[in-house]
Amino acid sequence: MNDWNLMAVVIVVCLFGLWKLELIATLLNLKAFPASVPAAMEGWLTPEKLDQGRDYLRVNARFGIIQGAFSLTVLLVFWTLGGFSWLDGLSRSLAPNQLVAGLVFISALVVGQGLLDLPFAYYDTFVIEQGFGFNRATLGTFIMDRVKGLVLGALLGLPLLAAVLWIFNQVEHAWLWAWVVVTAFQLVLTYLAPTWIMPLFNKFTPMPDGPLKQAIEDLGERCGFPLTGVFVMDGSKRSTKANAFFTGLGKRKKIALFDTLIEKSTTDELLGVLAHEIGHFRCGHIKQRLAMGIVQTAVIFYLLGLAIDPQGGFARQLFDAFGVHTISPQVGLVLFSLLLQPVGKLLGVLANAWSRKHEFEADAYAVNATGSGAPLAEALRKLSTDHLSHPAPAKLRVWLDYSHPPLLQRLEALEGVGK
């Protein structure tokens, strides 16, 4: 059993506070669902679709509450029973050295968390999503996605984790060098992912020559956005939901359109969506977010260095809070991630507010690039209706989680561009 100190109490209070905040936001979001079709959605959202969206929200809310309560309970039970100390001792007994012990410790927690999440992922895919007509994934696809993810995580994650642990065990000013290594890894992965990683999960087919491809290339040329490829992704392999995105850095920019988006959209609507995405590049959002992410990672690694410094009083209090006697980088990484959750939520709120501002700016760019906001507005209405999205989510839910503005706010802003 674990004897809690003051830091343990503070962490538990914060974790319960976050769970309670999520619960309140969920309940307010359910209450905020409109009783009738909003004026801006008339002609697109039928009363039947509105009722279906309300049911979809209610089912997902109940599912989220249960999953959140389960995860918090498992964590507290494992913590109270001294699980972190037990697993640390077991890892050391099985490993020949400190580095391998660290890999065993963190891998065991990751695999254990994955196994606990598996039933929830299955229920979400084959009960909720399938029940509302979204899921197209087979059981084979579901299993293979997780096998590929596990193998990929081992091939990429374990070497990176080993490098970070070695740095914290052997190198002076470890937090700085760990930050450099992780940042470099992320940049390389961003560059290689479109070519080597994403095709492991989806098929990307070059769009055949035709009016749509020509219109997309013309849009890219008008916007000063050189393209090296336009691809169609088999999103329908897993879901009926539609999307589009850009990949690549520098001059290696590619567009990927879900096949479901092409099926459901007109050419003008697709161009409106793509102009919005181009707007993120032209407005400098991608570079800004990349720079902010690098700075944020530096701050996190600096704080992590304090949390695992054997000579520091903070590290001793943190490890004592979880009943772990030996201060080590591997255990410190895990404990620090739990300690960081409240801070991460606050940073997430700020990041989401910044992101919503960027979305408005990208929408405005799309209007100016295409000459009208109507196609993008129609695409947003169609996507929202097809996805059974909440038309007017509660302010607290938006504040906590929304990286994009709610639909009605975006439609209103689109109408005001240029006026």
Write up what this structure looks like.
- There is one protein chain.
- The protein is mainly alpha-helical and 419 residues long.
- The protein has two domains: 6-135 and 287-416, no CATH class; 204-264, Zincin-like.
- Helices cover 72% and strands 4% of the residues.
- The chain is built from 15 helices and four strands.
- The protein has helices at residues 6-32, 47-80, 83-94, 98-131, 139-170, 174-197, 211-222, 259-264, 267-282, 285-307, 313-321, 329-370, 374-386, 395-401, 407-416, and strands spanning 204-206, 229-233, 244-247, 254-258.
- It has a four-stranded mixed sheet.
- The longest helix is centred in the last third of the chain and has 42 residues, at 329-370.
- It starts with 5 loop residues before the first helix and ends with a helix.
